[in-house]
Amino acid sequence: MSMYHIVAGIDDDEAHATRCAEAAIDLPSESPEKQVTLIHSFDDNPSGASASQVQSVRTAAELLEEHDIDTNIQESSGDPADAIIDTAVEDEADLILIGGRKRSPAGKALFGSVTQSVILGSTRPVMVTGVDEE
To answer: In this entry, which stretches build a coiled coil (predicted)?
Structure first.
């Protein structure tokens, strides 16, 4: 049986990152093995930092590794939505996982532009993690 592969877009928000990791951990899957690729897009990265140095990415990776989930980290520059979609296609991901925003006063979940672009641009299933009410 093949591995269930998840590509998760991780921004700088630790709460989003934690929620993405928890969603991946809790995801029911026919396959006993899950693999998660965490992808972080740098807006601009003059110092050449790697995504594994970003606190939100480390938080998500540590949580996944505690649950023995095979995790790898990738960084990209440029459009984050394109990076997430391209990575999902290259990795033949089963699922894209991405963080949502707060709810609006009307109770609708607000999607950031990256989340919206991924939902509209991907041919693969996309799961948007909820955000706790503060």
So the answer is: none
Task: Compute the average pLDDT of residues 112-122.
Answer: 90
- CATH of region 4-129: 3.40.50.620
User: Domain coordinates of the chain in residue numbers?
Assistant: 4-129
Please give the Cα distance from 18 to 74 (Å, whole number). 17
Report the distance separating Cα 113 and Cα 40, nearest Å. 15
Residues 55-68 have a mean pLDDT of: 95
Burial class (CB in 10 A: 0-12, 13-18, 19+), 41: buried
Q: Any idea which residue has 């609006």 for tokens?
A: 104
Give the residue-averaged pLDDT of 99-104. 72
